[in-house]
Amino acid sequence: MTQHTLTDRLSLGLTRALLATLALTVFSAMPAAAQVFPNKPLKVVVPQPPGGGFDFVGRLLADRLSKQLMQPVVVENRPGSGTLIGTDAVAKAAPDGYTLLVGSVSNLAINPGLYRNLPYDSLRDFEPVGLAVAYSYTLMARKDLPFNSLRDLVAHAKTNPGKLTYASAGNGSGQHVLAAALWQLAGVELVHVPYRGAQAAYQDLLGGRVDVFFDLSPTARVQVDAGNVKALAVSGSARLAGHPAVPTIIETGVAALELESWFGLFIPSKTPPDVAARLNTELAKVIAAPDVIDIFRKAGGRPLALNPAETRALVKRDVDRWTKLTRDLDIKLE
Question: In degrees rounded to 5, what are phi and psi of residue 9?
Answer without folding.
Answer: -65, -40
